[in-house]
Structure prediction request, 245 residues.
Amino acid sequence: MGFLYNEEALEFDLERINPLAGLKRLVNFKALIEGLKSVAKIVLIGAVVYFVVRSQILQIPFLVNMSIEQILRFTGELTIKLLGSVGIFMGVLAASDYFFQRWDLEKQMRMTKQEVKEEHKSREGDPMIKARIRRIQREMANKRMMADVPKADVIITNPTHIACAIQYDPKSMAAPKLLAKGADLMAQKIKDIARENNIPIVENKPLARTIFKTMKIGHVIPRELFTAVAQVLSYVYKLKRKKVF
Prediction:
């Protein structure tokens, strides 16, 4: 076996020679309180016994002239008074101590505001991490959406702030479908991709706004908008010299 060398043990630390810190280690505050409570209980019980006996002390000299039966009766009555008084007093102390211990335990278990925040984070997740995850999910969804724009047959705009990409294949689709939508900068990107892929851009303010506000990406055009969208597609197919069936 060799010697164990520990540099930290050789470092100078004022806390090690602090008499208050040493006293705290020697004296447990909670144990001190419990000890004082025990002493107080003994003192109070002694006081109860004293007052009970004092009320009967004047009769003690007369015990000399009493018979054994009278002495036993007197002793029994005094004992019952002592036990009853001490029992009632101990019951009151026990009930008081129970409620105090319960209050103290609830106080110790009560969490601070920081602990509540930490528990909320652990249960619900860190808000910053959740926000970052949502941002990443939006970015991924936008990338997938923009990748679908070249598949569109027409881009409906309002014309500057909103753009909606519509696809319709009469052979495989029962109704036109919304491939992508965006506002402001996203709308401009949709229109740029449309121009790169020679996709017609049609201005229809009411239709563009309605589709943008009421429809979700990937959903088919609802029945109430079908006529308006069909008119746009018919116009586009005429430009492409196609016929819609």
Summary: The chain has two domains: 17-108, 148-239. The longest helix spans residues 68-109. Residues 23 and 29 are 10 Å apart (CA to CA).
